[in-house]
Every structure is written in C-alpha cells, then in structure tokens.
Write a structure and sequence with these properties.
The complex is a heterodimer. Chain A is α/β, with parallel strands linked by helices. Chain A folds into two domains: 175 residues, FAD/NAD(P)-binding domain (3-Layer(bba) Sandwich), CATH 3.50.50.60; 69 residues, 3-Layer(bba) Sandwich (FAD/NAD(P)-binding domain). Helices cover 26% and strands 25% of the residues of chain A. Chain A contains six helices and 13 strands. In chain A, helix 1 runs parallel beside helix 2 and helix 1 packs parallel to helix 6. In chain A, 46% of the residues are buried. By secondary structure, chain B is an alpha+beta fold. Chain B has a single domain, classed as Glutaredoxin. Helix content of chain B is 35%, strand content 29%. Chain B has three helices and four strands, in the order E-H-E-H-E-E-H. Chain B has a four-stranded mixed beta sheet. Chain B starts with a strand and ends in a 5-residue tail after the last helix. Classes of the chains: A alpha/beta, B alpha+beta. The interface between A and B is medium-sized, with 25 and 21 residues. The structure holds flavin-adenine dinucleotide.
Chain lengths: 255, 86
C-alpha cells in the first residue's frame, strides 16, 4: 500500500493550497480528488475578490494553483475517498480504486449544492434540473425557465438568466413549478460533503466538521480546511488560508 | 467509436476539460473525437438533447451507447468510452 506523510481529500482551493504548504515543508503529499481540481469555483467566470488577479475565471485560477502544487512536488490523483480509519501507523484511506496509508489527514471536501426537494423534483418531471445558470443558461435562449431559491445565489442566477431566457419565474423551496418553465435552476444553498467522514471526526448538526481557526478536528492527526469547516466566511481566500493553517498543523503533528 | 464533446467558450467546466480531451485524443488515436461548440451548432445540440454542458456522448456505429455530463478526470472519460491506456 502506498504511504504518504499527508493525504489531502479534495483538490479545491483549500486542498490545493494545503498541498503547496505540505510540499514546501518537505513532506510527501497525495491529494485525492473525486471529480475535477478546482472544486466549486470552476463554474464562476469573473472572480473580483481574489487578490492579485482581477476578474480571473475560476477555471484559470484552479489550473494555476493545481500546476503550482504539482510543480512543488505534490501528487494529485483522481479517486473518490469512501472511508478513513485510524490505524497504528496513522490512517488507512479507502478510495474507490485504491487504498493508501497516511500519517496525517487534511479534509478539504468542500460543499455540494443542496438538491431539489423530492416534491419539486417530481413536479419537474422530465424537465432538466440545473445547479449552475452560468453553465447551462445559454441552452434556454428565448425560453421560459424557473429559479428556485431565496438567497443571494438565487438572485444572481436570476439576473444572469434574465438576459437569456424569455421569462424567468422565481419560486421558493416547495412552491409548485410553473407549467411552462422548460428548465429548473436550483439555488437553495449548499451542503458540506462530509457524509463519508461522520465516524472519523465530529460534525455539527448541519454536517460541517467542527474545528476552530487552528483547523484541528476532534481526532488528533485529522485537520480540516475550507468550506466544509464550521466558520463564518466561506470564500476563496478563507479556503486558501485554512489550507495553509491545516498544512502547517499537520506537519507539526508529524514532527 | 466516436466521442462527441459538447462545449461552449463561456463554460468553466468545459475549459477545465480541454486539456483532458486533448490528452484523451493523444492516448486514443483510434477514437474519433468531435468537439462541438453549442453556440455555433445549436441544431446538433438540440438533436442530441443536450441540456447541460460539458456533455460527452459516445457513439458506436452512429448509435449513442453512453453519455455523461460534467467535468471529469481522464480516467473517468476513458471508462465512459470503454477504453484503457497502454
Ligand atoms: C456560484 C459560486 C460563486 C462563488 N464566487 C466566489 C467569489 O467570487 N469569490 C470567493 O472568494 N468565493 C466565491 N465562492 C465561494 C468559493 O467557491 C468557496 O468558498 C471555495 O471554492 C471553497 O473551496 P474548498 O476547497 O473549501 O471546497 P470546494 O471548492 O468545494 O472543493 C472541494 C473538493 O473536494 C472534492 N471532494 C469532495 N468529497 C470528496 C471525496 N470523498 N473524495 C475525494 N474528493 C472529494 C470535490 O470534488 C471538490 O473538488 C463562490 C461559490 C459559488 C458556489
């Protein structure tokens, strides 16, 4: 079984930044990513609050940080982590295609969009359900669509779609879906992707990994970084900052 | 075998897939890869019922045999098409 000093779960901005710091500390590091490096920010076209790179796209920013981590010696592989167990040598990491051993763990699994309720999904029937207006909006040029949700993201999705669709309905969680809407755009919040790790670390009632600014979880040797941690502000810079802290604490733990 | 890659310039995940699709083409010259910009070829996107991009459609003798939506690593794209490297 392959052994690493640190295994990072998730190659979003938090995980990739952690990989940069662990590599620079001279430790071996593997980042495991289930889908695509960059995480949730890859859908965003214009980022205006990432210091030093005005209006960079999420895709470009992600590729840059990915290359930087790789250039510093971090290994990055695509595999979905299903379970992590404490063993005498450290931790056993069980992924879909392979198993690994690590001295310390950094969870940087981020958050997924909250899924549409069952009732509304049934209501939608065969109509496409999208969680990203900037990705799919243009496919509904001149057609009526509906946005579900009441937060800031829903507001942004509506503004974006108003320039494309013939009509944009706005409904809330559990309202009926308008009959003539040809696609359903959903923006009803996000859920931390921590389900596989409920036995490993303490989660709060909403599923976030409980940890303070030192990124230490309830289990010694397991650290957490980014949107999946209990915190006030979930942004790119705070995800990156967590990555630095978690990596430094993980290296200190290893000694 | 044919792989159709429906994309658009404004789509972030499609941008992320560009190097992956290029790597796929290099590793599998036996598969014909067609990249379709949905803004230029609306009818094709409609014909294949593309409702979300990036969208990858696998054709065998012109018939659709597999389809997947969203960004994915090379490993998964190869699995979708049913080919292995090396
Ligand atoms: C539409 C939108 C716009 C935004 N715009 C901005 C902005 O302009 N500025 C800003 O600062 N912030 C913005 N944000 C917030 C920002 O995207 C997040 O705070 C940040 O990307 C979080 O990074 P992360 O690394 O913690 O998590 P994520 O980006 O969610 O990354 C987590 C990664 O872990 C992977 N993963 C999950 N589970 C597993 C598993 N079991 N095994 C392997 N891999 C796994 C996921 O596939 C994902 O790639 C925006 C968010 C959204 C949704």
């Amino acid at each position: 079984m392959k052994k690493y000093d640190v295994i990072i779960v998730g190659a979003g901005i938090a995980g990739l930044t952690a990989a940069i710091y662990v590599s620079r500390a001279g430790k071996s590091v593997l980042v495991l990513e289930s889908t695509m490096q960059g995480g949730q920010i890859i859908n965003t076209i214009n980022i205006e609050n990432w210091p030093g790179d005005f209006k960079v796209s999420g895709a470009e920013l992600s590729q840059k940080i990915y290359k930087q981590a790789e250039g510093l010696g971090a290994e990055i592989d695509f595999d979905n982590v299903e379970k992590i167990e404490k063993i005498t040598e450290g931790f056993r990491v069980v992924a879909e295609d392979d198993e690994y051993i690590a001295g310390a763990i950094i969870l940087a699994v981020g958050a997924d969009p909250r899924k549409l309720s069952e009732k509304q999904t049934q209501d939608a029937g065969k109509r496409p359900i999208s969680y990203c207006a900037t990705c799919d909006g243009a496919l509904y040029k001149g057609k009526p669509v509906v946005v579900v949700g009441s937060g800031n993201t829903a507001k942004h999705e509506m503004e974006y779609l108003q320039n494309i669709a013939s009509k944009v309905y706005h409904i809330h969680h559990d309202d009926p879906i308008p009959e003539d809407a040809e696609a359903v755009f959903v923006a009803i919040g996000r859920v931390p992707a921590t389900g596989n790790f409920a036995d490993l670390v303490d989660l709060d009632e909403r599923g976030y990994v409980v940890a303070g600014e030192d990124c230490k979880t309830s289990t010694p040797g397991v650290f957490v970084a980014g949107d999946c941690r209990t915190k006030e502000i979930r942004q790119l810079v705070t995800a990156a900052a967590d990555g630095a802290v978690a990596a430094t604490e993980a290296c200190r733990y290893l000694g | 075998m044919e792989l159709i890659d429906f994309y658009a310039d404004w789509c972030g995940p499609c941008q992320m897939m560009k190097p992956v699709v290029e790597e796929f083409e290099k590793a599998h010259p036996e598969i014909t890869v067609k990249s379709i910009n949905i803004d230029d070829e609306e009818e094709l996107a409609e014909k294949y019922g593309v409702s979300s991009i990036p969208c990858f459609v696998v054709l065998k003798d012109g018939e659709e045999v597999a389809r997947e939506v969203g960004a994915m690593p090379l490993k998964k794209l190869e699995k979708l098409v049913g080919v292995k490297r090396g």
